[in-house]
Amino acid sequence: DPSYSELAEYGEAAKGLPIKIGIAPEREGSTDFVKEAVEHGFTIALGHSNATYADAVAAVQAGATMWVHAFNGMRGLNHREPGMVGAVFNLPNTYAELICDGFHVRPEACQILMREKGTDHVVLITDSMRAAGLSDGEYYLGEFPVIVKEGAARLKEGGNLAGSILLLKDAVKNVVDWQIATPAEAVKMASLNAAKSTKIDDVCGQIKEGLDADFIVLDEHLELVATYLDGEKRYQA
């Protein structure tokens, strides 16, 4: 069950850095935890959960503003129990993370989410594990053996997805290639929306005077051309 006193220790160790935490809102004491955490500046996301629609609504009313990788690790939509997915669709002014690797969520479901939330409230993420950017083979996710093959990371025992090996630039390209977002919408979902969702858009999230100059350059095919950090080119394709 969530404990604000424990979270406060992380906040102290962070020395002012923003903190986002995911919780399962059906756990005892969740509503009070969310209220206190939000009062102290934490961003609360909901996920890895079997919460009902009512559980999710209560947490959002208490101050939660995000959904951990929508569709994955949450109770699905049913006509008698809308579940957490129903809450994702139905509660405005919340941000839904989305893994667009083609394995975690079908493109059609991604399209439905973007239509229901609007592209201003979808955040493209990767959920990548340590094998991202590496070749196929055997790796570990914590203590669990993982097989990386044909673009997916799966548990060696059982074959369930074990995070992803998605690169964020490829998530941007995927949603455009699937014809469910424009290039401008895709870039926004991978940058500005993410910054807004954690209240750091005054620091990063767009190319603007006074903000962090960390960005990539893509060509007309959305392939990587260059990477800039602190305004300096660090990589050239």
Automatic annotation (TrEMBL):
Cross-referenced InterPro entries: Amidohydro-rel, Metal-dep_hydrolase_composite, Metal_Hydrolase
GO molecular function: N-acetylglucosamine-6-phosphate deacetylase activity
Pfam families the UniProt entry points to: Amidohydro_1
Ranges where the Amidohydrolase-related domain occurs: 180-221
Domain of life: Bacteria
SUPFAM superfamilies reported in the protein's UniProt record: Composite domain of metallo-dependent hydrolases (SSF51338), Metallo-dependent hydrolases (SSF51556)
Alphabetic keyword roster: Hydrolase
Keyword Hydrolase recorded: yes
Keyword Plastid (UniProt): no
Biological process, per Gene Ontology: N-acetylglucosamine catabolic process
Family: Belongs to the metallo-dependent hydrolases superfamily. NagA family.
Name of the molecule in the record: SA8A11-1 protein
Organism lineage string: Bacteria, Bacillati, Bacillota, Bacilli, Lactobacillales
Gene label: SA8A11-1
